[in-house]
Amino acid sequence: MNLAHLFLRTARRDGEAPAVGLGTRTLWTYRQLVDRAARLAGGLRSRFGCEPGERVAIVMENRPEYLEIELATWWAGAAIVPINAKLHPKELGWILGHAEPRVCFVSEKLADAVAEADPPASCRVVEAATVEYADLFEEAAPAMAEVGPDALAWLFYTSGTTGRPKGAMITHGNLRAMTYAYHIDVDEVAPRSALLHAAPLSHGSGCYVSPHAAVGSCHVVPETGGFDEAEVFELWRAWGRVHMFAAPTMVKRLVRHAKAKGLAGEGLATIVYGGAPMYLADLEEAHGVLGFRLAQLYGQGESPMCITALSRREHEAAARAGRRDILQSAGTAQIVVEVAIADEEGRRLSPGAVGEVLARGPSVVPGYWRDPEATRRTMGDGWLRTGDLGALDEQGYLTLKDRSKDLIISGGANIYPREVEEALLTHPKVKEVSVVGLPDPEWGERVVACVVAEPGTRADELDAHCLREIARFKRPRRYVFLDSLPKSAYGKILKRELRDRLAREAASEGS
Predict the structure, then answer these.
(1) Rounded-to-5 percentages of helix, strand, coil across the chain
(2) Which domains does the chain have, with CATH numbers?
(3) pLDDT at 474
(4) What is the DSSP letter of 204?
């Protein structure tokens, strides 16, 4: 069934419910949004030949048009290709060439970058909020396209930090499965709540459009088009019952702002965090400042937002029971997914053993766009090989250790950077930390901690702290103090960039 039906269903049941907001004001009700999207779908078909199976790219910062373009594309039976607005024009060009969309919608802010990207000649570039864009709504609205569960709905391109990005083929069935799991395992959403899109619509926040449309939430786009702590608190108060997706770094900034301004999260319902680990010290601080309003998900583009989850209620129950092991976990398998731990040969491991996290179920994509070899390597046997290392306990709680490529082997011992990071973050002077492994002629690899800390913090005091918290062999052999850590557009710390930087500095010192 076409995902657009979720919006149409809400429009029929509660057509006057706010559907899209900009800042503190409502722009369109669900009836108006569906009407606009259906007419835009007519423009996509008649002007650009967007038939079922075609692709429509979106290169914009968060803005209201994003949502009607997404819905119109599905209404026409085509697939969206939301592209990270922070990519370099060369990266944009590669994705546009690989996806070959019929049309690429851009904002005024990003029009020059897309022009420099040199899209394929077959791709028409249309800038939002122009006469050309408005003309698309003058066409007759077609009937909603009938598509099956295996029809392509979204081409999700990976970040490309380890090579060319791959396009995960997310289907209508994948997003429907994620929608059902969201309401069962992740969060409880009442009709006429609000979903605040302070995180990129091209990523996690955009994935949650479907479950919120299903119950009639208003999709609120900040006036800034992005993440600003003061604006977020203002929008929580203005809309009430606000849900949002955020990376852990965003949660930390919100907590820091709340403490500085004496705020407590009035109007906030739930922050669903994911995309990177939330360290225990940060989570406990967030609970103390914002209350038990956090839920966690673990997923990947290949199983969008849907592998494991730890709901808001589970956070509170674990905190009150002193179950820090549960708070440090990524929760249990969502209802539509089976999760297992395997060794390098694919053999299943017993509870407590560390291995690669595998997942299978209706949320897992069928493969990568035009890349059968990557599809075979990653999910050829029906299981998604996540590349993440973790362990399942007897109750089914998954504790993530690290990406398999981030595992450090020093003196023959496995060292998981997250363990060391967790220990360092309990030091009161440490603000952020990332632990990486560098080649060492004697030990194979040595543990290096890249630390953002208060001025005057010394390596010896951090070393003494680690010796109190973790085994001696796990402690860093070197501490590098930085003003900030390199992050992706989605808030993930770029460990590869840190390793490359440290390696260059070592080579320079040795020459």
Answers:
(1) 40, 25, 35
(2) 4-392 (3.40.50.12780), 407-510 (3.30.300.30)
(3) 87
(4) H
How many CB atoms within 10 Å of residue 331?
24
What SS3 state is found at 234? helix
pLDDT given for residue 415 in this prediction: 83
pLDDT of residue 160: 47
Q: How far apart are the first and last CA of the chain?
A: 62
3-state secondary structure of 162: coil
Identify the segments of the chain with pLDDT beneath 50: 160-162, 511
Which pLDDT score, from 0 to 100, does residue 407 have?
A: 79
Task: Please state the three-class secondary structure of 92-137 as a single string.
Answer: HHHHHHHHCCCEEEECHHHHHHHHHHCCCCCCEEEECCCHHHHHHH
Q: Please state, as a whole number, how many other Cβ atoms lie within 10 Å of the Cβ of residue 202.
A: 26
Record the tokens describing residue 109, joined without a space.
Answer: 């802010």
pLDDT of residue 506: 79
Burial class of residue 138, CB neighbours in 10 A (0-12, 13-18, 19+): exposed
The residue length of the chain stands at 511
Beta strand pairing status for 124-127 and 103-106?
parallel
User: Tens digits of per-residue pLDDT, 77-108?
Assistant: 999 999 988 888 888 999 999 999 999 999 99
- The reported pLDDT for the residue numbered 165 is 83
Residue 73, Cβ density class (10 Å: 0-12 exposed, 13-18 middle, ≥19 buried)? buried
Long-range (24+ apart) CB contacts under 8 A made by 351-355 are 351/391, 351/392, 351/393, 351/394, 352/391, 352/392, 352/393, 353/391, 354/389, 354/390, 354/391, 354/401, 354/414, 354/416, 355/389, 355/390, 355/391
Residue 162 pLDDT: 43
